[in-house]
Records
---
Amino acid sequence: MLENLKEQAPDKIIELIGLYAADTRANKLDLGVGVYKDAKGNTPVMRAVKAAEAQLLAEQDTKKYVGLLGDLSYVDAIRDLILGDSVAAGRVCGAQEPGGTGAIRQLFELIKAADAGATVWISNPSWPNHEAILKYLGMNIGKYRYFDEASCGVDFAGMKADLEGAAEGDVLLLHGCCHNPTGANITSAEWAEVAEIALAQKLMPMIDIAYQGFGDGLEDDTAGVRIMAAKVPEMLVAASCSKNFGLYRDRVGAALIISKDEAATALSKANIAGLNRVNFSFPPDHGAKVVSIIMNDDALRADWASELEDMRLSMLDLRQGLADALRRETNSDRFDFIAEHRGMFSRLGLSPEQVMQLRSDHAIYMVGDSRVNIAGLPKAGLDSLAKAIASVI
Ligand code: LMR
């Protein structure tokens, strides 16, 4: 039977991890998968996480099941962190999910259960797993223009024109902040315009927010989500704590569902609980409990926010450093956008051939669309990286 299985096309981001590991050159540089690295190239456990884990280890006295929706103190903390008071709490329900990907998958399934014919509109480009999961679920996919190759900014006019072609009941998937893979983001004023389009055309916004705190700050990074939440009757949010709590392998995510009234909220809640039950039953507890401990302890929360802010500032510093180095090496302002982009990634606008040449000639690994992980940039090696990039363009 198993010989009938189909070959699987590798995920481009995950494939890169293996290719990089197999490269024996001493000077190799990994700008691939989105993992934060400090100046020494390490991805340490955050201080508040270590402290909360110690507390959890000392105090936890049972491992019995928590509940299909996971730890509700965690879900409430994530709801407040992302939505603030933009929407009445009685219209929001949520579930703990295994990572941001788990949240996305569950919400796509929820959409499918509510309307199997709905088209989910994703940005062009988007995180590749959005399309992969939608395809796997056999759902309709639409793509709206997003990235302007010439300026490496957002093609907002193109985006709006494409969204105007979406039909009532379609889903509009947006990145809450720190767009992956491009690093180019819409402004608050543009979010307000998109909210008007969603409202007028009766689209269901779904917001993937995986990098809160990596862009303009913990609070500022929620501006778009909150503008949208305050406007529309229904909305979905897929949240991840992989990056901003550094809990990658512990799989800590959440699905938040805003429904039009309290009766609809009860129905949404029963459905997301049911989807958890049939897919994996109970979400993994450890990481979510750690987040809940941090968010409900003033000192731990302040320490977490301050370490996260340091990470954000170091990425901004690297952005500026790379933009400056490229300005010197190319004698042009072609790459100035790197300093304007926000979040963990920037798409550099190199061709696939140039990306391959950087890999073969310089042992520099970035995703094939020329997405680089800003946190992976070597502060001391920005000039040589810029030289290498200048040599292939
Ligand atoms: C990325 O885009 O590199 C991260 O979100 C990791 C992943 O799962 O792809």
Note: The pocket of (2S)-2-hydroxybutanedioic acid is lined by residues 13, 33-34, 127, 180 (CB under 6 Å).
---
Amino acid sequence: MLNFNFQNPTHIHFGEGQISVITKEIPLNARVLVVYGGGSIKTNGVFQQVSDALAKHTWFEFSGIEPNPTYNTLMKAQDIIKAENIDYLLAVGGGSVVDGAKFIAAAAEYEGEDPWDIIVKQQPVNKALPIGAVLTLPATGSESNGNSVVTRDGTKIPFSSPLVRPLFAVLDPSVTLSLSDRQISNGVVDAFVHIIEQYLTYSVNGKVQDRFSEGLLQTLIEEGPKALAPATKDDLEVRANIMWSATMALNGLIGAGVPQDWATHMIGHELTGAFGVDHARSLSIVLPSLMQVRREQKREKLLQYAERVWHINEGDDNVRIDQAIKLTVEFFKQMQVPTCLSDVGITDKDIDLLVARLEKHGMNALGEKGDITLDISREILTKAL
Ligand code: NZQ
Ligand code: ZN
């Protein structure tokens, strides 16, 4: 196992009816900015619950944070923050809203000239407004990690700081009942790939991390399809298990002390940036192909994945690996997400553009060993056609 530091101070409030805890979590004398997205919280009752919980607080609203939040939108929040002396942010929404709140929080306290430097120059965040989160879409883990992805001019760039990790997060599975099938699928698949990025590398004998990861993968494989099936769609236990899996997938626990890959994400970001493919769908397209292309480098872990996650015990190593990849694709299909580029209308003519974008963004040494060159990314994209 590798050395690691691990601290996750986000206070999780899990379960139905927990939105009311924000009354106590946010100091009464705080000046709160509630940030949210395109309005789903107004139609599913979440906004009302938040309003009720903040009845005695002084609070303001900032809405319109879009999926894949943009710098331009997020910077607009700075005016109200200054005008109203905001000193606390409450993010109410999915990963985009929580990620957006993180950039707003860091930009509000940034002492340099241009807050964009936090992202483009990876300037350290020295101060940020405190953030609380009410999560409405289980997927990213953003509600209890320090990561954020911001888009500017079609380019998605991540930044990270412990100072933007939410102080608390409310996870009420019942608020996920209003999600569309597309967003349910996206969430399950994003969480699944987060686990894979931290698990499917090379072994460092991190038994705890591996077993946690395998348990989470199996939970998503079992519960994900139930959230789409008419008979079990509204089952709150299904939603609860998906929600907690997605948080655990990227709250730092399973990734501590093990190598991490993230190549699927970095290649996927270009599909989103160039062609507007939903984040999770970019991953379900890239991952199967990446598994094929990197099967030698990932052999040991692919075999472990085959045996422990998919119970494949027959055949030689190559047969087992093929079978594990096939079952992964089948699971993605069951979750109704695309599994190749042609599913979203991207053709061989687009590969040059995608590789050029990877090059422009410095993504020429990806993967757990930094050995996925641009040529290998091209191979992964070509195999994904
Ligand atoms: O904007 P509203 O109206 O709220 O609608 C949203 C949005 O259209 C809707 N939605 C959310 N909760 C809902 C709901 N609709 C009905 N009922 C509810 N309960 O869902 C749509 C998508 O929301 P979004 O927040 O964009 O989805 P997601 O949570 O998948 O977040 C994706 C973003 O997170 C980033 C991605 O790159 C992308 O920008 N990521 C963040 C990570 C992190 N912070 O650690 C890691 C991830 O790998 C990822 O990169
Ligand atoms: Zn992701």
Note: The chain has a mean pLDDT of 97.
